[in-house]
């Protein structure tokens, strides 16, 4: 009787993993090299000295003046003069014709422009955008850090662990999880490209509100990914669309209330890095046995960010409403 030994066959996939890791590492090294070239060509020097001079020149006790906004409507009135009433052109009235160049210059010099300028607050319902107080400013800065770092931690967690989630939650095959991640990042990239156009026409708070709704909708759909493949693909694409604009839109929204300096930006990014480190210890040990923990974690981070966003809006509105009881606005 021959002894048979059970053999474990191990398949080495390292040669297949080499190309994507090389591509990712090359892109990261290329980005660092480009940053170094930019620094050597044009060094970044904060313009603090000129700002200090401007601050010293300003009167500290100067009262807060209403902020005015141009309506971008220009009415051009042409003063044609008495010669036009007699049916004569300016060139004919002078007795000679100097050509189209003279007429064009004469018409441009005779134009009068009148701009319609209105204050930002012309009704009690529209608040003035003013610099918040010290306590309100610090509170908004702290809430902005929570809003920014938590939603981007949700983004990083999904990008890192979604292939493992789909593998164990919906029994998808390895290559299918790779395709799912590719589709998600493609929708993510296209949405970011489109957001550049949208950001010129839509306020950041409206952009954030819509994308919060999309993110929560996608998480609800992904909770049913183990029952329906179409729902899984739909939720995956929606998450890429919803999470795409938070980096730029959150900074833009917070900067409507105060300037995001280098120090404030460092605090925001440092808190984001700290949360991403903690994410590895929360997701890693439990993801294979309980893959739905990714949805719970992403949902909690998105809810935390949404709560901070709502609190920032409430605090800003209350700070502005205190300044509504001022003298009537001056219309120029």
Q: Describe it for me?
A:
It is a single chain. The chain is mainly alpha-helical and 332 residues long. It has 2 domains: 52 residues, no CATH class; 189 residues, MFS general substrate transporter like domains (Growth Hormone, Chain: A, Up-down Bundle). The chain has 12 helices and 2 strands. The protein has a two-stranded antiparallel ribbon. α6 packs antiparallel against α10, α6 runs parallel beside α11 and α7 runs parallel beside α9. The chain starts with 13 loop residues before the first helix and ends in an 11-residue tail after the last helix. The relative contact order is 0.12.
Which key features would you list for this structure?
332 residues, mainly alpha, Growth Hormone, Chain: A, 2 domains, two-stranded antiparallel sheet, 12 helices, 64% helix, disordered C terminus
Poorly predicted tracts of residues:
65-79, 91-102, 109-132, 321-332
Number of helices: 12
DSSP, total strands: 2
The helix content is 55-70%
What letter string, H or E per element, gives the SSE order? HHEHHHEHHHHHHH
The end-to-end distance, rounded to whole angstroms, is 107 Å
Give the percentage of residues in beta strands: 5-15%
Mean pLDDT: 74
Q: How many domain regions?
A: 2
- Per CATH, which architecture of the largest domain? Up-down Bundle
Largest sheet: number of strands, sense, barrel closure = 2 strands, antiparallel
CATH topology of the largest domain: Growth Hormone, Chain: A
User: What Rg do the Cα atoms give?
Assistant: 30 Å
Helical/strand content category: mainly alpha
Major sheet: arrangement of strands: 1-2
What would CATH call the homologous superfamily of the largest domain? MFS general substrate transporter like domains
CATH class descriptor name of the largest domain: Mainly Alpha
Task: Tell me, briefly, the overall form.
Answer: globular
């Amino acid at each position: 009787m021959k002894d048979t030994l059970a053999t474990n066959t191990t398949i080495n996939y390292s040669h297949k993993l080499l190309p994507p890791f090389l591509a990712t590492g090359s892109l990261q090294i290329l980005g660092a090299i480009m940053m170094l070239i930019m620094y050597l060509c044009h060094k970044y020097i904060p313009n603090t000295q000129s700002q200090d001079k401007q601050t010293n020149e300003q009167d500290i006790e100067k009262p807060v003046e209403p902020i005015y906004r141009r309506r971008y409507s220009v009415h051009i009135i042409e003063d044609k003069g008495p010669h036009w009433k007699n049916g004569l052109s300016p060139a004919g009235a002078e007795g000679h014709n100097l050509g189209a160049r003279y007429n064009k210059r004469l018409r441009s010099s005779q134009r009068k422009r009148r701009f319609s300028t209105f204050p930002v607050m012309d009704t009690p319902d529209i608040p003035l955008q003013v610099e918040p107080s010290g306590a309100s400013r610090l509170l908004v800065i702290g809430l902005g850090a929570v809003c920014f770092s938590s939603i981007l931690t949700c983004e990083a967690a999904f990008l890192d662990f979604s292939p493992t989630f789909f593998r164990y939650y919906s029994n998808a095959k390895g290559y299918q999880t790779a395709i799912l991640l590719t589709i998600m990042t493609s929708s993510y990239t296209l949405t970011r490209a489109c957001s550049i156009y949208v950001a010129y026409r839509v306020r950041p708070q409206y952009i954030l509100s819509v994308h919060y709704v999309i993110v929560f909708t996608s998480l609800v759909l992904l909770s049913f990914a183990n029952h329906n493949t179409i729902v899984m693909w739909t939720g995956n694409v929606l998450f890429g669309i919803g999470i795409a604009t938070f980096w730029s839109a959150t900074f833009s929204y917070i900067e409507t209330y105060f300037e995001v300096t280098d120090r404030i930006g460092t605090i925001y990014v440092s808190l984001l890095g700290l949360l991403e480190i903690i994410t590895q210890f929360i997701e890693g040990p439990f993801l294979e046995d309980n893959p739905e923990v990714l949805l719970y974690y992403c949902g909690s981070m998105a809810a935390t960010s949404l709560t901070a966003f709502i609190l920032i809006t409430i605090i800003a509105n209350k700070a502005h409403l205190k300044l509504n009881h001022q003298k009537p606005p001056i219309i120029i």
